[in-house]
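Students often ask why inverse folding is considered easier than folding. One informal answer: many sequences map to the same fold, so there is more than one right answer. In these notes we will look at a single instance of the problem. The structure comes first.
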C-alpha cells in the first residue's frame, strides 16, 4: 500500500530527542517491513500537537493528499505525533477513514476504524489520546512553573534577550548571559552618559564609533536610553551603577 508519512516536533527538546529524523527512520523501517511504500512525507516542525489540522500546514497537506488519492493511508511514528489533543486526534482520523484511507503507527501498527459492534476499540484508542493530552498539559505546566520560579529568582524567564545579552543553557537552566560583542556598546553608552552627554549625542557617538545595535540600522535616542536604564538595573560585566546625578537628569536629554 502507498502511504503518506506525517512527522511532527513541537519543541527544541523533541528535536534533540524524538526528532524528525528519528521519526522518519521509524516510519520508513516499519513500512518496508510490512510491505508498504512511503510515497510522500509531510512535516510540521515546532508545531504543537494540540493545534487543529488547518493550523498545521504539514498535516493539512497530508490529509489533502489522502483525500485526493481516495485510498492508501497515513503512517506516523506514534499516534501522539498526529495529535496530542483528543478532539484533534479524532477529527483527523475521521477525515482519513471517511475518504477510504487507513492509519498506521510505527510502534503499534494499524489504528482500526470504529466498529459499532466493538465499542472497546474506540474507547481504548481514545484513552490513548486522553493520556497524550494529559502528558502535554503536564509538560506545559512544568515549563510554566519553571519560568515562574526563574522569574522569582530574578533570572531571565521568557521573551527575547535584550541588547548585551544572549540565552545560554537549556530548559529550566536557560538564562541570560552577557554577550561581549554587545557589552562593549553597553559600557560605552554608560560611560558617555556618566560624562553628561544626552541620549541623542550618545546615539551619534555609537554610530560613529562602529558599535551597532542588534537589529536596527543605527542607534536612536530612545534605544540608547533603554540600554542605559537596563544597565543601571543589571550592572552587567562590572559596569558601575549610574550615579545619582546621572539618573536624576531629565530623561528627554
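Output (designed amino acids):
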Amino acid at each position: 500500500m502507498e502511504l503518506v508519512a506525517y512527522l511532527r516536533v513541537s519543541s527544541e527538546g523533541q528535536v534533540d530527542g524524538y526528532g524528525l529524523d528519528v521519526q522518519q527512520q521509524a516510519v520508513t523501517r516499519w513500512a518496508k517491513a510490512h510491505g508498504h511504500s512511503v510515497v510522500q512525507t509531510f512535516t510540521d516542525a515546532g508545531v504543537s500537537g494540540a493545534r487543529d489540522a488547518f493550523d498545521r500546514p504539514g498535516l493539512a497537506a497530508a490529509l489533502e493528499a489522502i483525500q485526493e488519492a481516495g485510498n492508501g493511508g497515513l503512517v506516523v511514528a506514534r499516534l501522539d505525533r498526529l495529535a496530542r489533543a483528543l478532539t484533534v486526534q479524532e477529527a483527523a482520523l475521521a477525515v482519513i477513514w471517511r475518504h477510504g484511507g487507513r492509519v498506521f503507527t510505527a510502534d503499534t501498527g494499524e489504528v482500526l476504524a470504529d466498529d459499532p459492534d466493538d465499542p472497546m476499540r474506540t474507547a481504548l484508542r481514545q484513552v490513548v489520546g486522553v493520556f497524550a493530552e494529559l502528558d502535554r498539559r503536564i509538560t506545559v505546566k512544568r515549563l510554566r512553573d519553571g519560568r515562574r520560579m526563574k522569574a522569582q529568582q530574578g533570572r531571565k524567564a521568557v521573551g527575547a534577550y535584550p541588547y548585551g545579552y544572549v540565552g545560554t543553557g537549556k530548559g529550566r537552566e536557560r538564562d541570560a548571559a552577557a554577550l561581549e560583542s554587545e557589552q562593549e556598546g553597553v559600557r560605552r553608552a554608560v560611560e558617555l552618559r556618566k560624562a553628561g552627554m544626552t541620549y541623542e549625542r550618545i546615539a551619534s557617538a555609537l554610530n560613529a564609533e562602529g558599535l551597532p545595535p542588534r537589529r536596527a540600522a543605527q542607534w536612536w535616542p530612545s534605544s540608547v536610553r533603554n540600554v542605559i536604564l537596563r544597565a543601571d538595573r543589571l550592572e552587567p560585566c562590572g559596569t558601575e551603577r549610574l550615579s545619582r546625578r546621572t539618573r536624576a537628569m531629565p530623561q528627554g536629554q
